[in-house]
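Fold it.
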Amino acid sequence: MLKITVVAVGTVKEQYMRDAIAEYVKRMSREYKVTFEECRECATVAEEGELLLKKIPKDSFVVALDLHGRQMSSEKFASFISGKTLEGVSHFAFVIGGSEGIDKKVTDAAGLRLCLSEMTFTHQMTRLILAEQLYRAMKINNGEKYHK
């Protein structure tokens, strides 16, 4: 089973958003074990970066969500996940910074800097979008109909 850890600054405050994220996690549960690690919001991005780095599992391939990262289609994201698992990656850590962005130490530690969109989303919304895209990638990689 593929392990996915989402490491993020802050908490998801809105119940409807927590419910939506939980629904995608449930849908993925047969193939992906998805967990969330949160750290508190800090006065500086550098402080948040230190906290995020401590929460990243040591055995994981790190993907930093970054506005200046690489954009890819859902199909290419699915292919990326599939390709990395074929290379032996069994644990991904997706790192989401706070409202002021993500620290350079975190992006430097990442194997991939990923930009979900040129648009800016709240860090809470980013978790939901990431959960949906992970679910979509699973469906694409299984050849199932969700994507089309």
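The mean pLDDT is 95.
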